[in-house]
Amino acid sequence: MISLSTRMRPQTIEDFIGQGHFLYKGSLLYNAILNKTFDNGIFFGPPGTGKTTLARLIARSMDSEFVEINASTTGTKELKDIIKQAEDRLLGFERRATYVYVDEVHRWNKLQQDSLLKALEDGCIKFIGSTTENPYFSINNAILSRVRNIYEFKIHSREDVMKMIDRALSDKEVGLGNLDIIWEDDAKEALIEMSGGDGRIALDSLEYISQNGRNDKRISIKLVEEALQRRVSSFHKSEDKYNLLSALQKSIRGSDPDAAIYYLARLVTGGEDLMTIGRRLLVIASEDVGMAYPQAISIVNSCVEGALKVGFPEAEIILAQAVVLLASSPKSNASYAALLNAKKSIRNHGAFAPPMHLRDAHYKGAEKRGIKGYIYPHDFGGYVEQQYLPDELFIKEERFYEPTNNGSESSFEKYLNSLKGIGKDRDNGDN
């Protein structure tokens, strides 16, 4: 039997749900599809975000042949056969272009990826590759240079998944509209949270639960828990999720590792996705720990990347390390506060130009415009006193960054203060 996620694939570009950051009415991609001018592209992002669906819609809109292969099961020989057939199709009687969609293209080695190059250069195929890996690291530069656009697919928002669910429940032709069943709001919310922004998981779980739980006539959160074999009662509403994320950050900011770990556990058992937790931890590393322990951002970034690589359940071990590290570190928001102070100054007093000697002087005629006088600090042992702030702020002796005495930041403060001493010594020596 064909799965619900497959049956519910949109048939037109107008019905496509999600990825509104690059696909919306009037966007370049939307117009390229309508105008039949789409050429090559690479789609990258998590599973279940619509990469294959969009590739099929593009091929259908172009009135072209569509060949779909998976790099994990298709080798160089098969690819060459596909390219030969595409060449015959384009130059022969049909005169039709062929879109070759390669799923998991990052699995091909360099030799296999190079097999695409000549076909791309000759224009006998239109190439769409999809990958869950960053293409700038996993795909040859030679291919990247020949692909016009790279599109990053993001996990579906709660609103997007709700649209998919409601559409499937109301569709009587290929959806579940003929089932005499009611989904409780809490059950929908739980399914959305547990799907982690993966449309495929959401729809196929919706079908499984609807078909096998319809004796109750109503689908409750209990059935969702049973179907997904995970408790979702920890939280199932968006506001609960954000409350827990807020509590996690405030507990870390308050240097309470016990509370922070508790809220991490709530998020993990509640089914929150790795990216959401990881993003929050990275923000905390700079916003709340900052210059008091500058290494925290590097360590937490490594933890987040490691967690994404191994996935749940082992990922929670790595996240726990990041949380305890952050909660146990000295705290400073001075760098973030400095940014806010600078933005406030711009908002209240306007944007001032940098002094003339700091402006770009790498062109002929710059000196005639008065762009001169910059002193190169490295010629003076790494520091020389000169004006860096715009004139209007320099005159007022404006300061934005106020370092704390917490952790490593105290050493940075001592260094900055020592530079002021160097300036005074030079002034006294000149006198």
Determine Rg (CA atoms, Å).
28 Å
Look up the CATH topology of the largest domain: Rossmann fold
Provide the β-strand percentage band: 5-15%
Note the quaternary state here. single chain
- Terminal CA distance reads 91 Å
Q: Into how many domains do the coordinates divide?
A: 4
The whole-number mean of residue pLDDT values reads: 89
- Class by SSE composition: alpha/beta
Biggest sheet: strands, sense, closure?
5 strands, parallel
CATH structural architecture of the largest domain:
3-Layer(aba) Sandwich
Give the low-pLDDT segments. Answer: none
Secondary-structure map:
Elements: H1 4-7, H2 28-34, E1 41-44, H3 51-61, E2 65-70, H4 76-91, E3 98-103, H5 110-122, E4 126-131, H6 135-138, H7 141-144, E5 149-152, H8 158-170, E6 182-183, H9 185-195, H10 199-212, E7 218-219, H11 221-228, H12 238-253, H13 257-269, H14 274-289, H15 296-310, H16 315-328, H17 334-349, H18 391-395, H19 409-430
Helix pairs in contact: 4-5, 8-9, 8-10, 9-10, 9-11, 12-13, 12-14, 13-16, 14-15, 14-16, 15-16
Describe the structure.
This protein is of the alpha/beta class and 431 residues long. The protein has four domains: 19-152, 3-Layer(aba) Sandwich (Rossmann fold); 158-228, Helicase, Ruva Protein, domain 3; 238-328, Zinc Finger, Delta Prime, domain 3, CATH 1.20.272.10; 343-430, post-AAA+ oligomerization domain-like (Orthogonal Bundle), CATH 1.10.3710. 52% of the residues lie in helices and 7% in strands. The chain is built from 19 helices and seven strands. The chain has helices at 4-7, 28-34, 51-61, 76-91, 110-122, 135-138, 141-144, 158-170, 185-195, 199-212, 221-228, 238-253, 257-269, 274-289, 296-310, 315-328, 334-349, 391-395, 409-430; strands at residues 41-44, 65-70, 98-103, 126-131, 149-152, 182-183, 218-219. The strands form two sheets. It has a five-stranded parallel β-sheet, sandwiched between helices. A two-stranded parallel sheet has the order 6-7. Strand 3, helix 5 (110-122) and strand 4 form a beta-alpha-beta unit. The longest helix is centred in the C-terminal third of the chain and has 22 residues, at 409-430. The protein is globular. The protein starts with a helix and ends with a helix.
